[in-house]
Amino acid sequence: PTHGPNVMPLASETDPLLALREKLLAQSARFESSETLVSVARRRGSGARGRPVLRSASFIPAAVSQMRLAMQLDGSQWPEPSERERRTARRLMFALNMAVLWAYHSLLSAQALYELRWPSSHLSFVGTVACTGTMALGQLLLLATGVGARAQFSVRLIGGFLAFAAVGVMLLARPSVLNLVLAFGATGLLNTLT
Protein backbone atom coordinates (compact mmCIF):
# COMPACT_ATOMS: atom_id res chain seq x y z
CA PRO A 1 0.00 0.00 0.00
CA THR A 2 1.19 3.49 -0.81
CA HIS A 3 -1.19 5.36 1.48
CA GLY A 4 -2.54 4.72 4.94
CA PRO A 5 -1.92 5.39 8.61
CA ASN A 6 1.15 3.13 8.82
CA VAL A 7 2.82 4.33 5.60
CA MET A 8 5.42 7.11 5.83
CA PRO A 9 5.05 9.82 3.17
CA LEU A 10 7.81 10.17 0.63
CA ALA A 11 10.42 12.79 1.41
CA SER A 12 9.48 14.70 -1.73
CA GLU A 13 5.89 14.95 -0.47
CA THR A 14 6.97 16.70 2.74
CA ASP A 15 10.07 18.64 1.69
CA PRO A 16 9.55 21.18 -1.14
CA LEU A 17 13.31 21.41 -1.80
CA LEU A 18 13.56 17.67 -2.40
CA ALA A 19 10.53 17.83 -4.68
CA LEU A 20 12.20 20.63 -6.65
CA ARG A 21 15.44 18.65 -6.84
CA GLU A 22 13.61 15.58 -8.17
CA LYS A 23 11.89 17.76 -10.77
CA LEU A 24 15.23 19.23 -11.87
CA LEU A 25 16.77 15.74 -12.09
CA ALA A 26 13.90 14.64 -14.33
CA GLN A 27 14.45 17.68 -16.56
CA SER A 28 18.17 16.92 -16.66
CA ALA A 29 17.46 13.36 -17.81
CA ARG A 30 15.17 14.75 -20.50
CA PHE A 31 17.95 17.12 -21.67
CA GLU A 32 20.41 14.23 -21.84
CA SER A 33 17.99 12.17 -23.93
CA SER A 34 17.43 15.15 -26.24
CA GLU A 35 21.21 15.41 -26.58
CA THR A 36 21.28 11.94 -28.13
CA LEU A 37 18.43 12.96 -30.46
CA VAL A 38 20.52 15.94 -31.58
CA SER A 39 23.50 13.75 -32.39
CA VAL A 40 21.22 11.43 -34.41
CA ALA A 41 19.77 14.42 -36.28
CA ARG A 42 23.26 15.71 -37.08
CA ARG A 43 24.36 12.34 -38.42
CA ARG A 44 21.36 12.20 -40.74
CA GLY A 45 22.43 15.27 -42.67
CA SER A 46 21.71 18.93 -43.13
CA GLY A 47 18.64 21.04 -43.44
CA ALA A 48 17.29 22.54 -46.65
CA ARG A 49 19.85 25.36 -46.78
CA GLY A 50 22.90 23.25 -45.99
CA ARG A 51 22.87 24.05 -42.29
CA PRO A 52 22.80 21.29 -39.71
CA VAL A 53 19.43 20.35 -38.33
CA LEU A 54 19.03 21.74 -34.78
CA ARG A 55 22.07 23.95 -35.19
CA SER A 56 21.56 25.68 -31.84
CA ALA A 57 21.46 22.40 -29.94
CA SER A 58 25.17 22.53 -29.10
CA PHE A 59 24.20 24.39 -25.94
CA ILE A 60 22.51 21.33 -24.46
CA PRO A 61 25.59 19.87 -22.67
CA ALA A 62 26.20 23.28 -21.11
CA ALA A 63 22.54 23.50 -20.11
CA VAL A 64 22.76 20.09 -18.47
CA SER A 65 25.81 21.11 -16.45
CA GLN A 66 24.11 24.37 -15.45
CA MET A 67 21.06 22.43 -14.28
CA ARG A 68 23.23 20.06 -12.27
CA LEU A 69 24.86 23.08 -10.67
CA ALA A 70 21.43 24.51 -9.85
CA MET A 71 20.44 21.23 -8.22
CA GLN A 72 22.75 21.78 -5.25
CA LEU A 73 19.79 22.59 -3.05
CA ASP A 74 20.87 20.41 -0.14
CA GLY A 75 23.15 23.04 1.40
CA SER A 76 26.31 21.83 -0.27
CA GLN A 77 29.04 24.34 -1.01
CA TRP A 78 28.65 26.41 -4.15
CA PRO A 79 31.76 26.76 -6.29
CA GLU A 80 33.83 29.90 -5.87
CA PRO A 81 33.16 32.42 -8.69
CA SER A 82 35.95 32.79 -11.20
CA GLU A 83 37.91 36.01 -11.60
CA ARG A 84 36.03 36.70 -14.84
CA GLU A 85 32.68 36.39 -13.05
CA ARG A 86 33.90 38.73 -10.32
CA ARG A 87 35.02 41.33 -12.86
CA THR A 88 31.65 41.06 -14.59
CA ALA A 89 29.82 41.58 -11.28
CA ARG A 90 31.95 44.65 -10.52
CA ARG A 91 31.27 46.14 -13.93
CA LEU A 92 27.55 45.52 -13.56
CA MET A 93 27.51 47.19 -10.14
CA PHE A 94 29.38 50.16 -11.60
CA ALA A 95 26.92 50.37 -14.50
CA LEU A 96 23.97 50.06 -12.13
CA ASN A 97 25.32 52.85 -9.96
CA MET A 98 25.95 55.09 -12.98
CA ALA A 99 22.56 54.34 -14.53
CA VAL A 100 20.50 54.78 -11.40
CA LEU A 101 22.47 57.24 -9.24
CA TRP A 102 19.70 56.85 -6.71
CA ALA A 103 21.28 59.10 -4.10
CA TYR A 104 21.69 61.90 -6.64
CA HIS A 105 18.10 61.60 -7.84
CA SER A 106 16.87 61.59 -4.25
CA LEU A 107 18.73 64.85 -3.70
CA LEU A 108 17.18 66.29 -6.86
CA SER A 109 13.76 65.60 -5.34
CA ALA A 110 14.87 67.30 -2.13
CA GLN A 111 16.19 70.21 -4.18
CA ALA A 112 12.78 70.70 -5.78
CA LEU A 113 11.16 70.78 -2.34
CA TYR A 114 13.78 73.19 -1.00
CA GLU A 115 13.23 75.53 -3.95
CA LEU A 116 9.57 75.73 -2.96
CA ARG A 117 10.45 76.27 0.69
CA TRP A 118 13.23 78.83 0.09
CA PRO A 119 12.57 80.44 -3.33
CA SER A 120 15.28 83.09 -2.87
CA SER A 121 18.06 80.47 -2.56
CA HIS A 122 18.29 79.81 -6.36
CA LEU A 123 19.08 76.10 -5.93
CA SER A 124 18.10 75.08 -9.44
CA PHE A 125 21.66 74.45 -10.68
CA VAL A 126 23.90 74.54 -7.60
CA GLY A 127 23.24 70.92 -6.63
CA THR A 128 24.27 69.51 -9.99
CA VAL A 129 27.46 71.57 -10.03
CA ALA A 130 28.32 70.53 -6.47
CA CYS A 131 27.74 66.85 -7.24
CA THR A 132 29.59 66.68 -10.55
CA GLY A 133 32.45 68.87 -9.36
CA THR A 134 33.18 66.71 -6.33
CA MET A 135 32.68 63.56 -8.41
CA ALA A 136 35.35 64.68 -10.88
CA LEU A 137 37.65 65.67 -8.02
CA GLY A 138 37.06 62.31 -6.33
CA GLN A 139 37.90 60.40 -9.53
CA LEU A 140 41.14 62.35 -9.87
CA LEU A 141 42.02 61.63 -6.23
CA LEU A 142 41.31 57.93 -6.67
CA LEU A 143 43.53 57.80 -9.74
CA ALA A 144 46.33 59.80 -8.14
CA THR A 145 46.39 57.95 -4.82
CA GLY A 146 45.45 54.46 -6.00
CA VAL A 147 42.99 54.01 -3.14
CA GLY A 148 40.41 52.62 -5.53
CA ALA A 149 42.70 49.76 -6.53
CA ARG A 150 43.81 48.98 -2.96
CA ALA A 151 40.42 48.98 -1.24
CA GLN A 152 38.28 45.87 -1.49
CA PHE A 153 35.26 46.23 -3.71
CA SER A 154 32.76 45.07 -1.09
CA VAL A 155 34.24 47.43 1.53
CA ARG A 156 33.97 50.37 -0.87
CA LEU A 157 30.42 49.46 -1.87
CA ILE A 158 29.05 48.81 1.62
CA GLY A 159 30.90 51.77 3.10
CA GLY A 160 29.65 54.05 0.35
CA PHE A 161 26.03 53.00 0.75
CA LEU A 162 26.21 53.39 4.54
CA ALA A 163 27.64 56.87 4.03
CA PHE A 164 24.77 57.66 1.60
CA ALA A 165 22.35 56.71 4.38
CA ALA A 166 24.24 58.91 6.86
CA VAL A 167 24.05 61.86 4.45
CA GLY A 168 20.30 61.30 4.08
CA VAL A 169 19.80 61.19 7.85
CA MET A 170 21.86 64.38 8.24
CA LEU A 171 19.72 66.13 5.65
CA LEU A 172 16.50 64.98 7.31
CA ALA A 173 17.71 66.04 10.75
CA ARG A 174 18.93 69.51 9.72
CA PRO A 175 17.11 70.75 6.60
CA SER A 176 18.84 73.81 5.23
CA VAL A 177 20.14 75.08 1.90
CA LEU A 178 23.77 74.71 3.00
CA ASN A 179 23.22 71.11 4.14
CA LEU A 180 21.59 70.29 0.81
CA VAL A 181 24.59 71.63 -1.13
CA LEU A 182 26.95 69.74 1.21
CA ALA A 183 24.88 66.59 0.68
CA PHE A 184 25.22 66.99 -3.10
CA GLY A 185 28.99 67.33 -2.70
CA ALA A 186 29.21 64.31 -0.40
CA THR A 187 27.11 62.28 -2.83
CA GLY A 188 29.48 63.13 -5.66
CA LEU A 189 32.47 61.97 -3.61
CA LEU A 190 30.70 58.81 -2.49
CA ASN A 191 29.68 57.95 -6.05
CA THR A 192 33.36 57.79 -6.93
CA LEU A 193 33.87 55.40 -4.02
CA THR A 194 31.06 53.05 -4.97
From TrEMBL:
Keyword entries, A-Z: Membrane, Transmembrane, Transmembrane helix
Transmembrane segments: 92-114, 120-143, 155-173
Domain of life: Eukaryota
Protein's name in the database: Uncharacterized protein
Taxonomic source organism: Diacronema lutheri
